[in-house]
Amino acid sequence: MAEENKVKLHGMWASPYVKRVEIALKIKGIPYEFVEEDLVNKSQLLLQYNPVHKKVPVLIHNGKSICESLVILEYIDETWKNGPPLLPQDPYKRAKVRFWTSFVEKELLENVLLVVRSEGEAQEKAIKVVFEKLKLLEEGLKDLFQGETHHIDGENMGILDIVLCSLFGAHKAQEEVLGVKFIDPEKFPLLSSWVTAFTEVAVVKALQPPHEKLVMVYQFLRQKALRPSAAGVEVKEGVYVTSLSRSSPF
Amino acid sequence: MREYSYFIPLPLQAATMAEEVKLFGKWISPFSRRIEVALKLKGVEYEYIEEDLVNKSPALLNYNPVHKKIPVLVHNGKPIAESLVIMEYIDETWKHNPILPIDPFEKAMARFWAKFIDDKFWAIWPAVKKALTSGGEKEREEGIEEAQLHLNTLETQLKEKKFFGGERLGFVEISASLIIWIVVSQEVMGVEILTQEKFPALHKLTQKFVEDDVFKQCVPPWEPLVAYFKAQLGALAASK
Fold first, then answer.
1. Strand order in A33-36's β-sheet?
2. Residues of B in contact with A143 (CB under 8 A)
3. Closest listed residue to residue A56, CA positions, set A16, A5, A97
């Protein structure tokens, strides 16, 4: 591979944000080198490539760095036009995808993390909010899919599929750790069948850490937030997982 | 004083319009104002509908049932919500006078910075409000310090970025127009936060907005703006 076209991804195995980019690269059939970052001791390269946020994922292409997972996904779609598209062609459909992606990112993900990081009354409140947002998403899916069953496979996974997958791909682990079932087929039939569909996609399956590892991640996140001294880490904003970064992914 | 047109449903009106663009906004909102800048830059004719956010119209609730917020753009009956999503839609639908760069990498940079500015604004604005509405000296100083800390991050990051060197307003600058609201509100309340000395790059940017032909049309009228801030921020200050 010519140096100019080389693609590198700086990431961390437990990060769902990194997972998004990996799924996209694999769907497009783009060969890349994965650089595992220790988020406790960030490499000089990472700090150089993402001086603003100092986070993963960072995509390096043609020697230039692109940061923020959603920005990277759109960049991938616009740069490699040969593979399956990650966004529809029509501007209105694109707007709908971006709207719901933003919704999942801001309204769902943030609140699920809140559930992970809280307990007691605060957690109950956060759980309630998640269910409200899930209900809105279920309603939105009716409009988005327009009554048709949403078939996804490695050929037609798009940005919204990828982002939702990065959140609820681990729903079983979330259920085990949090004791609450978000992806409930009775409450949210469309959403549940969608989640089932994307967890079956070969590319996603290959990239998904084993259940036990995911459980460990969520337990760690919870412990870090609730009993940081016991977790043995300093609570730092922006550091997704710390001591986990030293363990191997598979 | 600005004229606000109110939507009167007339069957004939819809039939004769080849392309119907409506924007639901609020005159005081920088988020709907920046959509107006984008539309004007593209030369797109639109009907503006002023929303009373205390009594939201059935139309707004119908077009944005998820968030029930402005801005909402309705193009030929199809609604689009979320400020940055709308801006991308506008750029992709009316392709002349591009707001976003063509090159994918440059585009990625523009999207990155627009998001950065948006996120920072939500950190800056509460601090600004605190600084402008505090009864006590200490609290005001705290607000100023907090706001300036975030503004400093913006200043440092934006200082050398080339997209501010262009003649026309682009995606990042349009997104960054939120900054004007800080400048205006601090002037109204007589508190110095975003000063030229401390933030030369940001100050230069605000000057650019004020001098831009298109942006000038989209800034709220001065007197009502002053009155609004005095009333809102004054009320907040009085309640403390």
1. A33-36, A7-11, A58-61, A64-67
2. none
3. A16
- DSSP, collapsed to helix, strand or coil, labels residue B98 as coil
Task: Give residues with Cβ within 8 angstroms of B100, minimum separation 6.
Answer: B88, B91, B107, B110, B111, B170, B171
CB contact under 8 A, B80 and A99: yes
pLDDT band at B166 (very low <50, low <70, confident <90, very high): low
| Secondary structure (3-state) at B196 | coil
| Region of poorest pLDDT, from A1-5, A94-98, A180-184, B29-33 | A1-5
B108 vs A102: CB contact, 8 Å cut-off? Answer: no
Check whether A178 has a pLDDT greater than 80.
yes
Residues forming a β-bridge with A33? A8
- Placement of tokens 């307990």 in the chain: A119
Between CA A22 and CA A158 the distance in angstroms is: 13
Q: How far apart are CA A96 and CA A88, in angstroms?
A: 10
ipTM: 0.88
In this structure, what is the dihedral angle of CA atoms A151, A152, A156, A157, given to the nearest 10 degrees? 140
Which of A67, A71, A103 is opposite residue B66, by nearest beta carbon?
Answer: A103
Give residue-wise pLDDT tens across range B178-210: 888 888 888 888 889 999 999 998 888 888 888
pLDDT value for B222? 79
Q: How confident is the model at residue B232 (pLDDT cuts 50, 70, 90)?
A: confident
Question: In whole angstroms, how large is the CA radius of gyration of chain B?
Answer: 19
pTM, two decimal places: 0.88
**Interface mutation target, options B89, B91, B171, B175, chain A, most CBs of A under 10 Å:** B89
